[in-house]
Each structure stands twice: as structure tokens, then as C-alpha cells.
Amino acid sequence: MALLSVITPVLAVVLCLVIGFMLVRSRETETTSTAPGKTEGAKKADFRPWVDQDLQDDTEITAKEEEDGDWADSHEEEDLLHVPYSPPRYPEETMLQRSKDLYTLMNQRRSVRFISPEPVPREVIDNVIHTAGTAPSGAHTEPWTFVVVSDPDTKHQIRQIVEEEEEVNYRQRMGDKWVNDLAKLKTNWIKDYLDVAPYLVLVFKQTYGILPNDKKRTHYYNEISVSISCGILLAALQNVGLVTVTSTPLNCGPQLRILLKRPANEKLLMLLPVGYPASDATVPDLKRKPLDDIMVHI
Q1: Which ranges carry the Nitroreductase domain (predicted)?
Q2: Can you tell me the distance from the alpha carbon of 268 to that of 260, in angstroms, rounded to the nearest whole number?
């Protein structure tokens, strides 16, 4: 009995330590499984590849990367000269008419999957890309690369990569809900337009820049910046009478980056086939939301 009375407090202490250790480990596991950007351990129903994989922004720099010493100090860059700015100012009647004209033009824009092989002047494509490059960007880093592909063999290789991954996407990754939502648009993993369109424009976001001295430059809000430039690109294409369909081929980025010999700091954001609409092109009869549904005036 005396021995038991001595052992019992010791066992109680040991038991408390074990329980405490288990509680700490369970909290660490919970924190790890719910950390931003982590998809491991997530429920299959909560897995959203179009958000969790395609559209992650790599602007944040880890503490280890900060300590590497390869990142440029903003103070190393020269002071930027500021100059007067006086854009044209239109009479109110002209402003109103121009706003209506632009809306009419852009309201005709549609996603077109039936594209003519008819050649398009290269200078037109150059001007359209140049226009997309006027987009604003975080700290004016201009974190975009537009790869224009017209070579038939390269276009076909791109199609093979995209269709192989897209079939897996439709059959496995995307899930029934996503596939069903696309059914009314009659889309699938067959992408004839990747061979047919005279140009493919692959838009890459530069997750960081590389300066002439080989130091890395932070590209703030790189994905948002490049997305804005894509919007301007769509408007520029519409302005010259060309069509496209916005494509974000899931899981194709690394293979396409290697095929096109792009550096590791570039990640594919969007793929656009560009050309004239085919003579027999059709589009779904979709309706856009009225102004009251998309604007709140306070």
C-alpha cells in the first residue's frame, strides 16, 4: 500500500504530461491542415482547383527568401521623374456618345470557339499586345509576358498538352458540378481551335522580376496586374474585329512553360486563340446582367 501511494502521484503526473502533449499535437495538426494555400487533407467537396491551384498569387515572399540577399532593395533604383499630365477633356455630349459607342462595341464581344484559319496581319497582333501592356501594375513592375505562337508545329504540341490534361480535368479533377455547369455551353476537352487559329497568345505572370545584376525584384499583386492587362487585351481584340475564347487550362502550365522555354519565375495565367470568327461560327444565346444588378450607387 505504501508503494502504491508513492506510485499513484507519479502516474498522475505522467498521465497529465501525455494528455498535454496530445492536445498540443492536435492543435498543430489542425493549424497545418487549415493553413492558407494548403489543400492536403481538405475535404474533396471543398476542393476548388480553379481557385486553389490556378489563381494563387505568388506575391508574398517568405522570410527565408528575404534573408537570401538576392532581392533588390527598392532604394537601389533611381528616383522617378514626374512630368505634367494633361489628357484631352471632351465636352459632356462627346463623353456621353463615346461611352455609348464603347459599350456597344464591347457588348458585341463573345467567347468564340470557332475560329477561321485566315491569316491576320502580324502588325495588328503587335499593336494589340502593345495596348495590353499599357495596363497598370503594382509599383509599375509590368509583370507580364505575352508569348505569341504562330508556328503550326508548336501550336499542335500545345494542343496535345492541353487536350491530354483537359480530358483528365473533365473526367476526374473538375467534378460533376463544374462539368454540368459547362454542359449548356457545349464545351469539352477537344480544342480544335488550338490548331486552327492563326495565333495563340499565352499570357504569363512574372512572379518576380530579374534585374540586369541578377537580383530579384518583387512583383506586387502580379496576378491582379496581369489579369487587368488581359482585360485590356480582350478590348483591343474586339476593337480590331478579332475574336478569342479565354482559356485557363488546368495543370498545363508547367509543361507549356517548358515547351515555350520560359523561365521559372513565369507562370501561365491564360491561353487565348486569336483570329477572325469562322464563317459558320455560333455562340450561346447568353444575356448579360442589367446595370442595376452589377452597380451599387451610394
Answers
A1: 108-276
A2: 11
